Amino acid sequence: MYHQTIEMMRFLTPPLLNELRRRLSLLSTVANKQLPLTCLLPPHHSAPLKRPLYTGATLRKDVPLPQSKEDQTEEKLDLDIWKSVMRFQVPAVEEEKQGGEEGGGGAAPSGPGGGVAGQEEVSPLEATRELVVMWRQAGKLVPEIMTDEELGILAEFQTKSSKKKYLKYLAIKEGHKNNHKQKQEKKKAERSERFLEDDRIRPGGVRGEEGELRNTFLLQFWGRSLDKLLGWRSAQAVVFGQPLVFDMSYEQQMTRREVENTVSQLMEVEGWNRRAPDPFHLHFCNLQPDGGYHRELVKRYGAEAWERLLITSTEQRHVDLFPRDDLVYLTADSPNVLRTFDNSKVYIVGSMVDRSIQSGLSLANAKRLKLNTARLPLDDFLQWETGAKNLTLDQMIRILLTLKESGRWEEALEHVPKRKHDGFYQEKPQQDRDRGSDKDRRFSGRTRGDTGFRAGDRERAFSRRASVLKSGDRAIRNGDREGDSDKEIRTGDRGDSDRAVRTGDRGDSDRAVRTGDRDGMEEERGSTSRHKDSVFSSRDTVAVRNGDKERGSTGRHKDSVFSSRDTVAVSKEAAGDAENRQNTQTTTRVRTSLKTKMEDRNSTAKSGKKLRKEE
Amino acid sequence: MSHDCGVIICDFLITDMPSSAVFASGTAKRTAEYQKKRAEEEPDFPRKNKRVKPPDHPLTASEWKSLKLTTPNPDRFDVRMMSSMLADGTDINVAKSLLAYVAMDTGTLSYELLLRYLTLCVGSGHHSEVFDMYDIMRSRFRTLDTGASSLFIKGFSRTERWKEALTILENIKRAITPSPRNYGDTIAGAVLHGDGDTAWALYAELMEKGLIPNQETWQALFQCGLSHQGHEDGLQSILLHMRDNQIYPEETLAKDIKAWFESLPEQKWIGSWSTVDPRGVCRSCQAELESIQLSREEYAQLKDRVMGDVIQGRDVFNKTTPEELESFKNFVKRKPAFDVVIDGLNVANIGIKGNQSQTLLEVVSELERQGLVILVLGRKHMQRPSRSWDRHDMSLVQQKAHCFFTDNISEDDPFLLYATLHSGNHCNFVSRDLMRDHKACLPDGATRRLFFKWQRGHQLVLSSYTPGKRVRFQRILSYDTIVQTHGGSWHIPYDENGAERCTYEVPQKWLCLTKAK
């Protein structure tokens, strides 16, 4: 009843509306406060008590018609109170809003358009800015601050959806940036607090004043020194290192954002390479000076740092820089599998990011230039049935660097993101694998063969490698067969008959391994020890030579290695039976893998899940 | 899903189940549903319902306050509450009470909240509220975003203040191209208030901007033609536009078209709902429909474009190599014109896995029995004997048909298209592939539609295949499903209400319009 009287009063005195409205809300809060008391009663008692306002309304509807109409208008007035609130507030809020906007706009001054305030003369950029502001108010995902450059890009987009997508991207990026900043500030605050704490406990302790040196017997290893060391290593790579080409000819196929992503990845590539113990000599080929790649690279590195970078960037094509036979294009669409990493080859990686999958682009390029192609043996080592087999550029360089260093695929393919596959195939003893039960046909069929990653071989190979690596010899690391034959040649220098025996040996032992013949294995072991001896002796000579005269001798040494490789080829042919069989196996293996690939492809009815990788 | 009754048409054994033909509307939907049913669904975990439940009557400020306090997450309570009101279609007074509470509580209302309220108003047709909102928002904010503008256009165009929608439309244009729906709403407003000229001017502007008009817009224009005479050419051009772009009207629009034709004075059009029999004759007026076969010029044009755009594309190396393409061209030149070209891998994979060569052989044998010159396209790996590619089967295939095997890394579809097109208009091809990716390679809509028409007329699709039984193909329709006229009559295929048609399917129902003699 109390409420009702007040409501009636208010109804009768419209001019006092606001005032009374306030009181009403006050009163209703009072009513609310009374509620807990009523709640002490059982629920069915409290329900009617809670109702009075509405029962009152229904009661009023019972009174004669004209008054009920008035009642409704009264209720409407009540409901529309916000309209008058908004109308009255208009001017003040408008000013406040403009002020806030200019503050929020920050880097982008609102210019003359702000003064004219949405009148006829509005530049397209200004219109876009207004659009962004309004979208932000409408609760769309829009960044707080936009540079003029970003606004320009936004204005260029034709459709509403592309504008929205771009703004969403910027907003998310901004969010990440802000989060990062906050985290850093928090850390900084914590650190300074900790220091203060330290000072309080031990004033004038280990840590001196800001910038003062720590009192310690250890020599400070400055970042500068590391930079210098890495710089020298890169410089050495530029002179002597194995080239690795990044093909920068995909600008046409990429959107602006994809080019930006590519350049980010390339920067990582350069970083990984610089920090590697034995870096590649990076070549950025097909890099047009006025192209998008170049623009982004210079923008991200800064012109000065870009000039100082110890890489080779050129407008020339890779086929003009290197002999065609040495080039191998790494592409996920290649039918050939890269078994061994060859230090004499120049590998090419296509610098492309394709957010919308564009299969076969790099393969098409390689086909056009008639280059050799290869893909990483991902299927042989990783349980990876479906899903795109494309890797980012930084993953690619880490794989290649590891491969160059250790020659172990298992180690190199650790750099493939774990989320993409279900882990490595389980290691099995060599004999089991080679007997090739039908169950793991696919596995044994692929890993068996000439690559030299047979378990028995491998250990030997690595012990040898470890010893030889230090001498800086590259050829040995080419993989086992190469190494093996290399070794034969070197030892062969001492006596032709000896070599003949050894090659025979090796053929035998190979066969022995494959058939799992115990006797053969023993025989091999015997020959292994002999091999080992010879390797050590050869290493000794290398070491001596190295001590002799550093640069010249390495060069000479390299030459000799190369020439010896030529002879390797000859001797390989001569090796005959065993070797040939291996070759045929290789080809069939490639075919089987391809066949399964084809079948997969057809069975999925070209659903687009093609196996691919764009490096 | 059984295909047992067969009819022989143009030498092919064909199942008479037009409803299940690949290009018939709704087939894709049905197949998808069937397969969904088959794959045992995992129990769907109901997503955690985070929505707040709107009340069913207006609340006072205090009640709103207590409601806000009881919700688990009071963050942005007002906006979330308004959104759920939108979703539930709550009474506008409830929303008003919320606004009143927020305005009293915070002293102002956010743009976002107002925008949602506006959506509610426009959605439920509270015109006076829309006007009030317009005044408030215009004075309160410097500009309106596209969402609010679109809503105001929609709201205004239904009222006597529809002309203001035109100004709002102009405002949108300053920042962005208005959407077809914006235009559509404005046109509908003009039509509603009898201003046909403005409506047609806006329609011309819409077309000029290259936007694709909504069917509702056309419906409005036909209704305009119904109430006011004139603009006959314009309306006929809409129908021709549908023909050129292979657009099919929906049932409601088809009804309006029918009504408009029948309302034309002194022309005495009679409209009827009809279907077409397999021979391509309208069951209502017995007129013969346009043939699915391409004319000589169309065929030549299509052949050129497919050769240039699909097979070579932007980069011939993407799908093949120039050498391979050249050798294939020579191969085709050497051989007689083929009657049917088979996508070997596609056909072989229809049957059971591991038995591919046998499937292929059966299909080839069936076609050979009909005395056709056959070309089988495959990849080189098919020639290597294996479990799925039996040496004996493959040699039989090679005896019965000409064969060409592409490199394992080349795509075989482009070769299929080339060989089929090269052999002439009579040549068909066998594949289940819908060739959508190749259709997409074609640059302009006209060629794409030509391709689709050719495809519908020349693609043989295997019905369900069981080894050992006779191979059957789905019927090729002999008529073209497209809006068509012969001066004295119109035949318009339309989408039934509720029929979900994929882009590569065509409708089965027709509107037949004839002039009474």
UniProtKB/TrEMBL annotation, chain A:
It catalyses: an adenosine in mRNA + S-adenosyl-L-methionine = an N(1)-methyladenosine in mRNA + S-adenosyl-L-homocysteine + H(+); adenosine(9) in tRNA + S-adenosyl-L-methionine = N(1)-methyladenosine(9) in tRNA + S-adenosyl-L-homocysteine + H(+); guanosine(9) in tRNA + S-adenosyl-L-methionine = N(1)-methylguanosine(9) in tRNA + S-adenosyl-L-homocysteine + H(+). GO terms for molecular function: tRNA (adenine(9)-N1)-methyltransferase activity; tRNA (guanosine(9)-N1)-methyltransferase activity; tRNA binding. Residues 581-591 have a biased composition (Low complexity). The keyword Mitochondrion applies. The gene is TRMT10C. GO terms for cellular component: mitochondrion; nucleoplasm. It comes from Oncorhynchus tshawytscha (Chinook salmon). PANTHER family: TRNA (GUANINE-9-) METHYLTRANSFERASE, TRNA METHYLTRANSFERASE 10 HOMOLOG C. It is an enzyme of class 2 (transferase). Residues 420-462, 471-534, 546-560 have a biased composition (Basic and acidic residues). Its EC number is 2.1.1.218, 2.1.1.221. This is tRNA methyltransferase 10 homolog C. InterPro entries: MT_TRM10-typ (IPR028564), MT_TRM10-typ_sf (IPR038459), Trm10_C_MTase_dom (IPR025812), tRNA_m1G_MeTrfase_euk (IPR007356). Residues 230-423 form the SAM-dependent MTase TRM10-type domain. It is found in: Mitochondrion. Keywords: Coiled coil, Methyltransferase, Mitochondrion, S-adenosyl-L-methionine, Transferase, Transit peptide, tRNA processing. It comes from the Eukaryota. Residues 95-123, 420-615 are annotated as: Disordered.
TrEMBL record, chain B:
Pfam families: PRORP. Residues 34-60 are annotated as: Disordered. Its main location: mitochondrion. InterPro entries: MRPP3_PIN_dom, PRORP_C, TPR-like_helical_dom_sf. The keyword Signal does not apply. Residues 34-47 have a biased composition (Basic and acidic residues). It is found in: Mitochondrion. It comes from the Eukaryota. Residues 277-512 form the PRORP domain. It is an enzyme of class 3 (hydrolase). One of its GO terms (molecular function) is metal ion binding. Keywords: Hydrolase, Magnesium, Metal-binding, Mitochondrion, Nuclease, Transit peptide, tRNA processing, Zinc. It catalyses: Endonucleolytic cleavage of RNA, removing 5'-extranucleotides from tRNA precursor. GO terms for cellular component: mitochondrial ribonuclease P complex. Its EC number is 3.1.26.5. One of its GO terms (biological process) is mitochondrial tRNA 5'-end processing. This is Mitochondrial ribonuclease P catalytic subunit. Its cofactor is Mg(2+). Belongs to the PPR family. P subfamily.
